[in-house]
Amino acid sequence: MTHVQLENYIAGDTKYRYLKLDTNKGLQKLLFITDTLYFVNPKMREDVIKIEEENQQRTELQQQADEKQKEADALKFKAGHPKK
After folding, report:
1. How far, in Å, CA of 10 to CA of 59, rounded?
2. Which pLDDT score, from 0 to 100, does residue 84 have?
3. Are 16 and 10 in contact (CB under 8 A)?
4. What is the pLDDT of residues 12-33, one digit of tens each?
5. What one-character DSSP code corresponds to residue 22?
């Protein structure tokens, strides 16, 4: 588990540093603002994790709803077309 967390940390660090090397001024400004927000808001990590978890839960609920809708559609079709 710790090995995976370390790999994720290294990957995130590498991606962030790669983005900082980009010459796109808009991206540089966004990264600067994000860095500033991170230092101003000590709870930023917890907030981000909470939002990610909420998004994941919504995605899972939407997938369940889609599956239930497909099941309901199949039952409606079956009810409207009796076997001969």
Report:
1. 27
2. 53
3. no
4. 999 999 999 988 999 999 999 9
5. -
